[in-house]
Amino acid sequence: MPMFVCSSFHIRKDELYVILILCLTALSVKSENIKKTPKQGPYLPNWDSIDSRPLPGWYDQAKFGIFMHWGVYSVPAFGTEWFWHKWKADKNPRFVEFMKENYPPNFQYPDFGSQFTAEMFDANHFADVIQASGAQYVVLTSKHHEGFTNYASNFSWNWNSVDIGPNRDLVGEMAEAVRSRTDIKFGLYYSLFEWFHPLYLKDAANNFSTQDYMKMVMKPQLHEIVNKYKPHLIWSDGDWMCPDTYWESTDFLAWLFNESPVKDYVVVNDRWGQGDSCHHGGYYTCTDRYNPGVLQKHKWENAMTIDKTSWGYRRDTKYSDFLTMDEITQTLAETISCGGNMLMNFGPTHDGRIIPIFEERLRQIGAWLKVNGEGIYASHPWTSQNDTFTPGVWYTTKNTSVYAIVLDWPENNTLNLGVPVTSETTTVHMLGVSTALQWSKGTQSGVSMTIQFPVLAGPQLPCDYAWVLKMDNVN
């Protein structure tokens, strides 16, 4: 504790408090700087430097995550999470008519805020379901393009989940539940822009020569969520309307990687400004539901949705709008084989529930991964991504083993493969089946090996879709 000797001059009590605060702050800053010395870097606020930062290893090993789009758009729950924009900006007839038929003439979108109640939300249940999915990370919306924050933002007065609606810190509750009950990494989605924020509209009208919205809302909120919730991942979005110089993205990322409390482990995506996607940042997302089907040179992610058309929950869905497990496992196989991660999205209801079909899909993919995760988690792309003879066979590798993800059970239990080069010591196992499978060298043109699938009754099958073969001593 520093001592102040004041024998030769007089210091007022209020001045002494100021001196003490300044000294303690200086000591704290010095201590924090010592603790937060970056392992690499320092990184400069330009893309050459930012892009040189190695991607923290946990992300590539994780392979599979869960996305949650949740906000005021979950109240009308109609059409899309872009409901407000479709209704007011696009004046889409379908959305305009929906409002005329169901709400009073003077009803405005912010009136939905008080109806975003989340009274059924149990963060522990959400964490348990996400853990059951086999996900290694989860990304929750802290703010979507509507500007409503799922926490008490100091820069979104009366348009956040603590001031109105739930009157709860939804981000904080979810972060606590995930971290206390699971080993899943907690991440946050954040929209850089807001459709109808007056400061953003003013900057847009000035062709983004002014930066009032960025300085007074966006950048403070990004610092807010990093310092308060310490996410492992920041999923940036809403960047495409203007260049990254307006957003001062490289300045923020330099702070994030050099000085922030998450600097050593945080992962970011590529949506930091007009033209940056698929070129700069951390891992690449390129487009929504990005699934190139071929090996990529840079780490990437397929952010996709169980509901084929919407990211948020909507009441106008039909059963056919939801992906089947065959479609989900196919997407996962294609994504992981080509070097990507899959981030699978669902949308909770306005009152805080996971509807049964979403929970079913999460638990189904978790059951599949419990059997077949060996060929997914911490795997790498093999020399070939898919088979040259039989369609619907995708490869991964880990250690010295090669894994073939077979999307369709072969006719007559006989699978012909064109890629693996066998030897006398080659062995083949189906994950979830104890006995080795019989195989032989291929006799047809283009077939390198033929594998006999086991004859199993329904309950004996290790899973109901996409079977994974583990092959050792193949090239």
Automatic annotation (TrEMBL):
It holds the Pfam family Alpha_L_fucos. One of its GO terms (biological process) is glycoside catabolic process. Keywords: Glycoprotein, Glycosidase, Hydrolase, Signal. SMART domains: Alpha_L_fucos. It catalyses: a neolactoside IV(2)-alpha-Fuc-nLc4Cer(d18:1(4E)) + H2O = a neolactoside nLc4Cer(d18:1(4E)) + L-fucose; a neolactoside IV(2)-alpha-Fuc-nLc4Cer(d18:0) + H2O = a neolactoside nLc4Cer(d18:0) + L-fucose. Residues 385-471 form the Alpha-L-fucosidase C-terminal domain. Alpha-L-fucosidase is responsible for hydrolyzing the alpha-1,6-linked fucose joined to the reducing-end N-acetylglucosamine of the carbohydrate moieties of glycoproteins. Its EC number is 3.2.1.51. It is an enzyme of class 3 (hydrolase). Homotetramer. It comes from Stichopus japonicus (Sea cucumber). It comes from the Eukaryota. Residues 35-374 form the Glycoside hydrolase family 29 N-terminal domain. The keyword Glycoprotein applies. Residues 1-31 form the signal peptide. One of its GO terms (molecular function) is alpha-L-fucosidase activity. Belongs to the glycosyl hydrolase 29 family. This is alpha-L-fucosidase. One of its GO terms (cellular component) is lysosome.
